[in-house]
Amino acid sequence: MGLVKRITRSRAVQEALGLLVASYLKFVHRTNRFVMEPADAYDRIGPMMPVIAAMWHGQHFMIHFAKRPEDRAASLVSRSGDGEFNAIALRHLGIRAIRGSGARGRDIRKKGGISAMRAMMRALGDGEMVVMTADIPKISRVCGEGIVTLAQLSGRPIVPVAVVTSRRMDFNSWDRASIGLPFGRGAIVLGDPIEVPREADRETLETLRQAVERELDAIHERAYALVGSKDPGAKARDTKPAPAMTASSRA
């Protein structure tokens, strides 16, 4: 491991980076004018708590803006070194981290997927909302089976969530990540809850997996439209790479 990586992986540095990220995101939240759609989202979703909040990779940085102060929440975070400072940032944002991730062509036990599933089940059973990305790493905006399986086993509904800002940095990463900038407009859009019956067969699970995928695409398209932009990650797997990094400056 190189010197720079050793420094950035040290506990003290990760604590500082996590606090810095959390402080920045709080600043972005305070300095953007947000609208919520539907306007009565909390009235509709509140009685269903705890729910499974679904998001896309790359659109997750500001997802905590959609959480009410009274809602207890836990979020799935990978076991990687980068995941550690993400977990620290979440702690400063009032969200508990559950370590683990899904796997694609790799040992799910090594990635912590099984233990993470159990931990998320316990969290939901204890009344905590669980926040997780619906797509697995390296396959952008294709919903995996994990979130649907969690909904089936827990009996809790999936609620797709999109949080975007008019001013942001868009990155040329595999997930077309975006992070908000201060002093603009923002939109929080919640999709229709998706219930997964405990007795669902494979065909039904596949239908519901596709429903989660479609709903997440739809609410992100709507959220970006509300701030006068186009979704930078839309159909990312079907398009040519974008410039390395661009700044959107709509106010």
From TrEMBL:
Residues 230-251 are annotated as: Disordered. Pfam families: DUF374 (PF04028). InterPro entries: DUF374 (IPR007172). Residues 68-138 form the DUF374 domain. It comes from the Bacteria. Transmembrane segments: none annotated. This is DUF374 domain-containing protein. It comes from Microvirga aerophila.
